[in-house]
C-alpha cells in the first residue's frame, strides 16, 4: 500500500482526525489520553456497523487487529489500516515483525513500549491531543501530534561525531572529520550508541542516524540529551536521502519523490523508507561515476565539488 490516508472517526461526543503515511505509525501517551477509546470506537464500528453510531471515514478499510487469530487475519487482508494496542503481546514478537514486513497493510500501534523488532521512524511517533473535556457537553476533538518534534537542538558545531553504522555514511563523515579535525566513530548499530555515550566527556557530540528506523531508540536518546546538553541528535531519513536531496544526482522526478515519498514507497517492498532511498540511489547511479554502494563509499563522493554539494545541504550540522 502507498500514499497518505486521512482517517476520521467520530460519534456524537468524540471526533478523531489524523493522517498516516507510512506502514508503521506509533501512538504513545499516558492513560486517559483517548488511545483505548480510539481502538474501542473502531472495533464497535466494525462489529455493529451503522447501529454503533460511529462513523469511520477513510479511503481504505480500518480494522482492529487482536486475538489469537491475528496472523490468519493478516494473511487474508490487504490494503487495510490495522489498529492494535499493547494488550496484544504479539506486537513485540519477531513473528509479528515478519508479518508486517511481508504485507501491504498499514499499522497503527498504540503502545507505551519501544518495539525493537520494528524499524519505525522518529517522525511517526505521536501522542493524542484533546480539545474539550469529557464531562461537558462539547464534542471532544482529538488530533495526533509528533511527540519528538523538538528532539534536534540544531544547529550544532560538533567536536565529535558518532554514526549509527559503519557503512558508506560513516565513510563519508569520517573523511570529513579527518579533514576538519573532528573525531568520528561508528557505533556499529543502534544498540551500541548508548555504550559510547557513557564514555563521552564535555565535548560537543552529534549523533547521526537514520531517522527512518531509529524510532525504537529515540525516547532513550531524547532523554539523554535533556540530561547532557552537549549531546545533539541529527536524524535525516538516511545517508542516501541526504545525497538525493542535495541535488548531486540528476533526475527531474527526484524532487517530486522527496516531497511526497509516501506516494512512491510500497510498504510490502520496503520495510522502511531508508531501504527505498538506498534502492533509489543505487538505481539512479548504477551507470555513472557516482555508482553507489551501501557497504563502502565510492571515493567520487569525496571529490571536492561533490563533497561540498552534500555538506551544503546539511543544514543542522556545521562542519
Task: Tell me what you see in this structure.
This protein has 10 helices and 13 strands. The protein is of the alpha/beta class and 319 residues long. The protein folds into 2 domains: 5-146; 160-312, no CATH class. The strands form 2 sheets. Strands 4-1-2-9-8-3-7-6-5 form a 9-stranded mixed β-sheet, with helices on one face. Strand 5 (62-64), helix 2 and strand 6 form a beta-alpha-beta unit. Helix 7 (239-245) crosses helix 9. The relative contact order is 0.13. It comes from Catenibacillus scindens. This is Translation initiation factor 2.
What does the average pLDDT come to? 92
**Beta strand count:** 13
- Overall geometric form: globular
Class from secondary-structure proportions: alpha/beta
N-C termini distance: 39 Å
Domain tally: 2
- Give the DSSP E fraction (strand runs of 2 or more residues): 15-25%
Strand line-up in the sheet with most strands: 4-1-2-9-8-3-7-6-5
The radius of gyration is: 21 Å
Classify the helix fraction into a percent range: 25-40%
Q: Point out poorly predicted stretches.
A: 133-137
Order of helices and strands: EEEHEEHEHEEEEHEHEHEHHHH
DSSP helical segment count: 10
How can the largest sheet be summarized? 9 strands, mixed
Amino acid at each position: 500500500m502507498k500514499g497518505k490516508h486521512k482517517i476520521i472517526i467520530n460519534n456524537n461526543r468524540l471526533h478523531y482526525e489524523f493522517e498516516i503515511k507510512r506502514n508503521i505509525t506509533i501512538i504513545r501517551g499516558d492513560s486517559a489520553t483517548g488511545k483505548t477509546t480510539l481502538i474501542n470506537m473502531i472495533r464497535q464500528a466494525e462489529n455493529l456497523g451503522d447501529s454503533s453510531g460511529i462513523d469511520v471515514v477513510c479511503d481504505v478499510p480500518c480494522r482492529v487487529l487482536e486475538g489469537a487469530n491475528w496472523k490468519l487475519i493478516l494473511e487474508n487482508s490487504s490494503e487495510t489500516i490495522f489498529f492494535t494496542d499493547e494488550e496484544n503481546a504479539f506486537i513485540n514478537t519477531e513473528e509479528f515483525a515478519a508479518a508486517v514486513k511481508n504485507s501491504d497493510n498499514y499499522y497503527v500501534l498504540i503502545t507505551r513500549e519501544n518495539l525493537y523488532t520494528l524499524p519505525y521512524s522518529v517522525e511517526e511517533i505521536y501522542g493524542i491531543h484533546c480539545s474539550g473535556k469529557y464531562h461537558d457537553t462539547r464534542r471532544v476533538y482529538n488530533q495526533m501530534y509528533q511527540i519528538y518534534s523538538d528532539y534536534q537542538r540544531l544547529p550544532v558545531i560538533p567536536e565529535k561525531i558518532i554514526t549509527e553504522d559503519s557503512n558508506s555514511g560513516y565513510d563519508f563523515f569520517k573523511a570529513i572529520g579527518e579533514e576538519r579535525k573532528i573525531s568520528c566513530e561508528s557505533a556499529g548499530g543502534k544498540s551500541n550508541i548508548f555504550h559510547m555515550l557513557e564514555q563521552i566527556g564535555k565535548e560537543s557530540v552529534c549523533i547521526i542516524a537514520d531517522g527512518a528506523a531509529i524510532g525504537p531508540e529515540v525516547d532513550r536518546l531524547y532523554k539523554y540529551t535533556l540530561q547532557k546538553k552537549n549531546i545533539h541528535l541529527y536524524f535525516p531519513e538516511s545517508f542516501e536521502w541526504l545525497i538525493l536531496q542535495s541535488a548531486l544526482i540528476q533526475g527531474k522526478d527526484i524532487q517530486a519523490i522527496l516531497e511526497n515519498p509516501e506516494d512512491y514507497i510500497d510498504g510490502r517492498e520496503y520495510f522502511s523508507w531508508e531501504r527505498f532511498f538506498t534502492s533509489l540511489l543505487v538505481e539512479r547511479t548504477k551507470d555513472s561515476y557516482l555508482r553507489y554502494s551501501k557497504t563502502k563509499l565510492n571515493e567520487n563522493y569525496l571529490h571536492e565539488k561533490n563533497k561540498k554539494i552534500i555538506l551544503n545541504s546539511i543544514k543542522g550540522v556545521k562542519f
